[in-house]
């Protein structure tokens, strides 16, 4: 979703490319997108993280608080259609982040939270973030990891014709996922259910190489290559942006089928491209007897509240 007033936050930020304009968004468009994808529920979230866009930390906390209230209001109006992931202050600001976790999950009833892949150059397994992970683990929280770059404008057209998010977001997902494994955060906070978007970035491709090279190099890991690989496969994965045969094939050979979820990135993807990927996903799941969890397997494990609502509340349409 695009919260009310977010376009102004984007335009005023010194950290964003001014050439990138946000798409128009209406709640009705999201309802239509859910129906067109063949899903019954959607989890709303804000991918672009407020701490990356606003330098005033006090304002960051207030903005996150307001955005979460906006999403909770949409959920309350359409309980059979939507849930939401909370937007959080930077985990570097430990107390601010902990307060919003408590309010969003315990008071507003958020279905999970969103964390960026890194904050001020620190990936999510950083020791400074351990109190945040402990709070989330105590709640058994769902955590959606969203790629982000602290220096978002990054490479200029003179250096490379493609902006960094197009190239590097997949790599950022892999960097923070492997950091969570190597730092032991993934194992120690195993009650957290962590979703990696975009099919886990490059993780399905590089995990075995990383695990074996790191395990044979003394002092890099406290676990075996097999343990590293098992932890990499224990993430949940969504298929945002990878609705094509080659990446879907690789993901499904790597991941536990019961840990794969549908994702769309709407409204930041054009409708025609989204329709193409939805068609590819539907065709892919029907061939060769492939069965996976784009229906209810993973969703029922992550969001039992929505599954209960689905059985007892009529659609709001």
Summary tags:
single chain; alpha/beta; seven-stranded parallel β-sheet; disordered C terminus
The whole-number mean of residue pLDDT values reads: 86
Order of strands across the main sheet = 1-2-3-6-7-8-9
C-alpha-based Rg, rounded: 19 Å
Could you tell me the strand content as a percent range?
5-15%
User: SS-based structural class?
Assistant: alpha/beta
User: How many β-strands, per DSSP?
Assistant: 9
- SSE string: HHEHHEHEEEHEHHEHHEHEHHH
End-to-end separation in angstroms reads: 19 Å
Question: What is the number of helices?
Answer: 14
Low-confidence stretches: 311-317
What is the overall silhouette? globular
Q: What kind of sheet is the major sheet?
A: 7 strands, parallel
Helix content: 40-55%
Structural account:
The protein has 14 helices and nine strands. The chain is an alpha/beta fold and 317 residues long. Strand 4 and strand 5 form a beta hairpin. It has a seven-stranded parallel sheet with strand order 1-2-3-6-7-8-9. Helices cover 48% and strands 10% of the residues.
Write the layout of secondary structure elements.
Blueprint: H1 6-12, H2 27-37, E1 42-44, H3 50-53, H4 57-77, E2 82-86, H5 94-107, E3 112-116, E4 118-119, E5 122-123, H6 130-138, E6 142-146, H7 164-182, H8 185-188, E7 193-196, H9 203-215, H10 225-233, E8 236-238, H11 245-254, E9 260-261, H12 271-286, H13 297-302, H14 304-312
Parallel strand pairs: 1-2, 2-3, 3-6, 6-7, 7-8, 8-9
Antiparallel strand pairs: 4-5
Helix pairs in contact: 4-5, 5-6, 9-10
């Amino acid at each position: 979703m695009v919260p009310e007033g977010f376009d102004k936050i984007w335009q005023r930020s010194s950290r964003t490319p001014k050439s990138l304009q946000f798409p128009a968004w209406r709640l009705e468009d999201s309802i239509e997108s859910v129906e067109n994808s063949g899903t019954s529920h959607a989890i709303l979230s804000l991918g672009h993280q407020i701490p990356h866009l606003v330098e005033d930390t006090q304002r960051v906390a207030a903005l996150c608080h307001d955005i979460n209230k906006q999403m909770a209001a949409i959920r309350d109006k359409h309980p059979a259609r939507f849930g939401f992931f909370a937007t959080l202050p930077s985990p570097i600001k430990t107390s601010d982040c902990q307060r919003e976790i408590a309010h969003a999950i315990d008071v507003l009833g958020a279905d999970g939270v969103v964390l960026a892949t890194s904050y001020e150059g620190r990936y999510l397994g950083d020791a400074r973030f351990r109190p945040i992970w402990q709070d989330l683990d105590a709640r058994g929280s769902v955590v959606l990891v969203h790629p982000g770059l602290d220096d978002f404008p990054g490479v200029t057209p003179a250096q490379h014709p493609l902006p960094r998010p197009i190239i590097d977001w997949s790599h950022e997902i892999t960097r923070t996922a492997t950091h969570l494994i190597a730092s032991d955060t993934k194992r120690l906070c195993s009650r957290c259910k962590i979703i990696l978007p975009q099919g886990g970035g490059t993780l399905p491709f590089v995990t075995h190489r990383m695990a074996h090279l790191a395990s044979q190099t003394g002092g890099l890991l406290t676990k075996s290559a097999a343990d590293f690989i098992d932890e990499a496969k224990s993430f949940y994965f969504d298929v945002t942006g990878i609705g094509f045969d080659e990446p879907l094939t690789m993901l499904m050979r790597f991941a536990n089928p019961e840990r794969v979820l549908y994702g769309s990135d709407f409204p930041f993807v054009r409708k025609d491209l989204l329709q193409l990927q939805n068609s590819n996903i539907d065709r892919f799941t029907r061939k060769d007897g492939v069965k996976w969890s784009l229906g209810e397997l993973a969703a029922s494990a992550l969001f039992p509240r929505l599954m209960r609502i689905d059985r007892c509340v009529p659609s709001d349409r």
